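hey
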């Protein structure tokens, strides 16, 4: 009996040992598998990180390679096909002496040309859309890190939603929905409500207009990484001697008693690629005349650059080139049929050459200055007025590139697919500007002041929609009022600040006055201010569109330097 008990005990002990052994083996196996899984996961994360790093380093390398201020001249690149050869595009195996070859050899990054997908006329412009990619394995499948880069010889101002080479002042609740802000000198932000009454009286209203807001992805770049702010409404400004002047209640820090968060402020470390407005207009006049590349006509370009009166030199250049253009009388469109409008005469003309209007002109109907789907040039030796209808559902369509040797006025409802250069001032008055039906917009550059006023005055939309679609630049200064008006810019606005002060201020650069919320009118003046917390309730919203860099290819301003516009990084 005792022997049987010992046998049972032995069997029980063996069973217990076996169970614990199995449990131990299970634990060890699970730990090993978990360690293996963790190792694989760490390797996957490292592979993804390495691929991202290589793509970002390739972008930085590309930027450094193209940063020479005289890049095109130094490398003797004078034509778009020479540019493609330098980049190494169009070859399945680019050589090591090309950009694509070096990025492949150094980082394992492949550079592909996607310019055709953006309808870029590669035989006419230096703009290219390049996709940088690198593949990696995540343990289950092959994935790809991608980054789209626009390589362009256009000036820096086209990369920002708002900005100035000099000072930028944002008063009130302007909302930068997408894009960055650039300030070459001093940056200021306040919650003041400044506007001008119809009788010219400068008014600092006591209503809290809200502090400026930038989206979480937006950055305010300044020359020193500093921003001066004031959150005391009427304590920020005073109307004195016919100007809005700053009081002393400004400090280099964001107010602590306002609900709006401080924007992300960074010091701009990249060189600002500027544009010489007069040389750009001369460049476009030569381009319109078929002199390609225009910058190769060094003698003519130098005569304008060195002239004391550049405007006079531009008129001399027009006189020299005008015999190559199709001339149209602006004040008497068709002597044989006086019933024809100027728009009808323009429509009937061949667009194989630029059209030339000698004198002040008004266009009230559809204008199409295209040749085989490509924008042709209309050169106006005088003032130009584009006068659209005021019926909310009716628009005038304008397609083409314009050089206006005078002042420009835009009014009414206009759909624009155009690049417009204005040697005088530009006024946008009671206007709604849309992109054309082909979804292309306008890039408008003015040497003189840019005046945007009375856009959708006292309109308080429940569904905010853009009503000014395009990029607007002035070589001078600008003051924008969006207190009674409602402005939703899909594009951008830049005032270089070339000497003159902004209207109603002593500030050289861009001054914006906006209100966040509803504003009603009383006898034609802003009244009953109702502040709002929703960023889109701002009476000035700016949504930057990088697509404009490809939409107006041949019409964009040209510089002898290459820059990059980098899109976000993607993983597929």
């Amino acid at each position: 009996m005792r022997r049987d008990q010992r046998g049972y005990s032995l069997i029980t002990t063996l069973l217990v040992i076996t169970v614990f052994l199995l449990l131990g083996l299970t634990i060890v196996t699970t730990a090993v598998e978990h360690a293996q899984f963790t190792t694989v996961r760490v390797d996957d994360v490292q592979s993804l990180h390495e691929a991202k790093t290589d793509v970002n380093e390739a972008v930085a390398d590309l930027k450094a390679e193209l940063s020479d201020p005289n890049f095109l001249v130094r490398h003797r690149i004078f034509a778009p096909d020479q540019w493609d050869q330098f980049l190494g595009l169009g070859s399945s195996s680019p050589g090591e002496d090309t950009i694509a070859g070096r990025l492949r050899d150094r980082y394992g990054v492949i550079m592909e040309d996607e310019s055709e997908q953006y309808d870029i006329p590669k035989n006419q412009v230096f703009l290219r859309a390049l996709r940088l990619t690198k593949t990696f394995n995540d343990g289950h499948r092959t994935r790809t890190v991608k980054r789209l880069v626009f390589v362009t010889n256009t000036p820096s101002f086209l990369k920002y939603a708002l900005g100035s080479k000099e000072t930028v002042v944002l008063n009130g609740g302007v909302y930068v929905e997408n894009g960055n802000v650039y300030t070459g000198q001093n940056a200021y932000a306040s919650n003041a409500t400044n506007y001008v009454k119809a009788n010219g009286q400068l008014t600092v209203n006591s209503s809290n207009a809200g502090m400026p807001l930038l989206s979480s992805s937006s950055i305010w770049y300044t020359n020193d990484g500093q921003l001066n702010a004031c959150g005391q409404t009427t304590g920020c400004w005073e109307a004195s001697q016919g100007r809005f002047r700053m009081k002393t209640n400004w400090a280099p820090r964001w107010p602590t008693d306002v609900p709006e968060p401080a924007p992300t402020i960074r010091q701009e470390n990249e060189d600002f690629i500027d544009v010489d407005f007069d040389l750009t207009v001369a460049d476009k006049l030569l381009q319109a005349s078929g002199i390609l590349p225009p910058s190769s006509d060094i003698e003519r370009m130098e005569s304008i650059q060195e002239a004391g009166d550049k405007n006079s030199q531009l008129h001399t250049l027009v006189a020299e080139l005008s015999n190559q253009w199709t001339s149209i009388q602006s004040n008497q469109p068709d002597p044989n049929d006086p019933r024809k409008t100027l728009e009808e005469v323009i429509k009937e003309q061949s667009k194989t050459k630029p059209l030339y209007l000698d004198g002040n002109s008004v266009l009230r109907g559809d204008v199409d200055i295209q040749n085989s789907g490509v924008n042709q040039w209309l050169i106006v030796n005088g003032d130009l007025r584009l006068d659209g209808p005021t019926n909310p559902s009716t628009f005038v369509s304008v397609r083409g590139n314009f050089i206006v040797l005078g002042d420009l006025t835009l009014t009414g409802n206009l759909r624009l697919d155009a690049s417009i250069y204005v040697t005088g001032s530009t006024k946008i008055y009671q206007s709604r500007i849309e992109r054309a039906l082909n979804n292309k917009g306008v890039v408008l550059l003015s040497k003189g002041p840019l005046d945007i006023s009375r856009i959708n005055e006292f309109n308080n939309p429940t569904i905010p929609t853009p009503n000014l679609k395009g990029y607007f630049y002035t070589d001078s200064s600008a003051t924008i009022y969006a207190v009674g008006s409602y402005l939703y810019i899909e594009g951008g606005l830049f005032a270089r600040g070339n000497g003159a002060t902004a209207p109603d201020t002593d500030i050289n650069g861009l001054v914006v006055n906006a209100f966040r919320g509803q504003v009603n009118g009383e006898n034609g003046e802003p009244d009953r201010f109702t502040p709002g917390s929703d960023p889109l309730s701002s009476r000035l919203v700016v949504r930057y569109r990088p697509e404009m860099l490809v939409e107006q290819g041949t019409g964009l301003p040209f510089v002898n330097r290459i820059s990059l516009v980098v899109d976000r990084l993607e993983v597929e």
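Residues 8 and 14 are 10 Å apart (CA to CA). Residues 37-43 have pLDDT under 50 and may be disordered.
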